[in-house]
Amino acid sequence: MLLKLAVxxxxxxxxxxxxxxxxxEGVYCPLxxxxxxxxxxxxxxxxxxxxxxxxxxxxxxxxxxxxxxxxMLLAKGVKRIYYKYSALFxxxxxxxxxxxxxxxxxxxxTDHVLFCPRWAGCTVYMGRLFVNQLMLHESGASRDxxxxxxxxxxxxxxxxxxxxxxxxxxxxxxxxxxxGTSDFxxxxxxxxxxxxxxxxxxxxxxxxxxxxxxxDMPFSTGADGLPVYLxxxxxxxxSRKEPNNILPPAPGCTAVLAGSCSGKTNRQLEIFxxxxxxxxxxxxxxxxxxxxxxxxxxxxxxxxxxxxxxIATTLxxxxxxxxxxxxxxxxxxxLAENILGxxxxxxxxxxxxxxxxxxGETSGKVISTLGLxxxxxxxxxxxxxxxxxAEGSDPISLVTxxxxxxxxxxxxxxxxxxxxxxxxxxxxx
Length: 429
Description:
By secondary structure, this protein is of the alpha/beta class. The chain has helices at 12-24, 35-39, 59-75, 97-108, 154-159, 171-174, 178-190, 203-214, 225-234, 263-273, 283-288, 292-301, 317-326, 329-349, 360-369, 410-428; strands at 5-9, 31-32, 47-51, 81-84, 113-116, 122-125, 128-131, 134-135, 165-169, 193-198, 219-222, 253-258, 278-280, 309-312, 352-358, 374-377, 387-390, 396-401. Strand 17 (387-390) and strand 18 (396-401) form a beta hairpin.
């Protein structure tokens, strides 16, 4: 096996993003979502991403799942494990970034770990996280209904969920010599620090330096960017495959499923709705309507033969406040996820084989409902890294995205990409 790098991602869309970025580097990197799929991994794989649901589950469950994956990766001879989480460091007050990292630190036998959330507008300075020009606690992440991030000091955030000492790696040390950085880390470890929040403002300048440090470590953590720079070191000078943006076809109908309540997803749905039929689920009404799945199914059945369709549980800020007051945030989130999961099954029965999905939790639900645990991922481009394909006698293609991701015409762009894949089959006949 050629496997040089394994990434454990705390949600599916984030994992897909990393896999697509590695594919863009010419690295063959499938995504798996089960131990069985990991065990049966293609021998040609050079890297692998494991897409999990770790962000908001109980810590003991998350740690248990990660430990199982970690043990299998080490048994396969993997020398470098990367734990990927949100660039916004999104987690509950008690985890799960800290507990998972402690687990993997123990498994890999290291005594210190880097935490590098630098990515796409997110920077870290003096251990504080900035989102564009705002500190984390001033950004939209502070109002997240599930994991509100109200403290910009990542040292404090991580310390609250960790049983080991937490410090930070200052920018001047990051940009200094490699030996100077190593000396700094060693000195801090001797003082009882094991976890280091890394300052990083610039990709090429800072992430490349951090990759040079992390390349010798069996375990590191962060957002989407650092694995790209690790890959460039690991496969430096080696002939790479050409990035692939068109995956095999998935003959069948097309449906958009949106569970994210982000402002961007709402704007994208407004654009989509101008061209295609969209069913907007009223969650309060749905909580009282036992026939809601049947209603959606019949609505879809009448329209699928004519065009792509969309089904959404999304809400604007006013709607989110209303639903939280009426049902509570957790109940509403679970209801939306369950509805879209059941709808996925009915759409599949109606002949849908191309799915465009908005929202990390929703994407995970759709993929698990479809029973997919091994996915070929396309190289990163303007679709944001979510285009993937499940091979087999009855193939399925998906384009997934995080709620705040993508251009306003994202859904139309995704539908077009899936159509082009079907055309590629026709061209070969």
